[in-house]
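Q: Hi! Curious about what enoyl-CoA hydratase looks like structurally. Here's the sequence.
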Amino acid sequence: MAYECIEVDKRGPVGLITLNRPKALNALSSQLMAELGEALAAFEADDEVGCMVLTGSEKAFAAGADIKEMQSKSFADVFSEDFITSGWEDLTRCRKPVIAAVAGYALGGGCEVAMMCDFILAADTAKFGQPEITIGTIPGSGGTQRLTRFVGKSKAMEMCLTGRMMDAEEAERAGLVSRIVPAAELLDEAIKTAERIAGMSRPSVLMTKESVNRAYETTLAEGIKYERRLFHSTFATEDQKEGMSAFAEKRQPNFKHR
Ligand code: CO8
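A: Let's find out. The predicted structure is below.
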């Protein structure tokens, strides 16, 4: 299908989605989020794709939900529509990993979307923030919840109460991003990382993602039991036999399921 607010490309086993509303710093309009939902679903269903990368422009990953679209809505509107669910929740339901490659602004809904991805690779130009309070509202798509889990209460509370931005260095120190790369190398590095993941055994990748995410949803004892059972189940796969044989034979594994 033809998209207006995003660009979609396949780089070998990597599904690349680029947010593309340059005049609005990739503000997340409902159309953009609906298109994002469709693109994610298409890559989820595409057997050739093992990992996805979500990125924006040099200036902005996304500067938030579209303020001009929201500004005239009433309480009755947003409550009745459950504003905005389409696309936003889809991202958290993907089984394949999604890497956020963030350069420039990731603000408000932009920061929230980045945090819904499985990890964030940041350019040295990245700036993260939850500035909703400066426009008389609060984060609406997980900002107060996910940011607090990433960086702890004190920093999350300060960020959400003041709306100040943090730069890439602070975000890495605080554990919001996995690593920082020079802006000019961000996309190549994100795709290289996604290719590496896509080259692993697909069931192991999906299980790893499920298991790490479980850490947010359950107790330590239950999470460890869940992990142990998934670990055991990998022994039913040909790829576990191949991976361990390849190690013993000092060669690269040739995984069947990827
Ligand atoms: N929405 C709509 N348009 C935007 C947005 C936005 N979030 N951000 C930027 N734009 C537009 C500007 O209006 C401007 O358009 P125009 O040229 O037509 O005037 C264009 O993009 C360029 O922006 P600026 O001229 O402002 O560029 P600067 O480089 O001067 O400033 C900033 C960049 C600092 C990023 C600035 O644009 C800014 O502060 N943007 C708004 C940031 C913000 O407040 N974001 C939070 C929005 S609220 C939100 O995200 C709630 C999420 C809740 C999700 C709920 C769903 C369930």
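A: A fun detail: The chain is about 45% helix and 15% strand.
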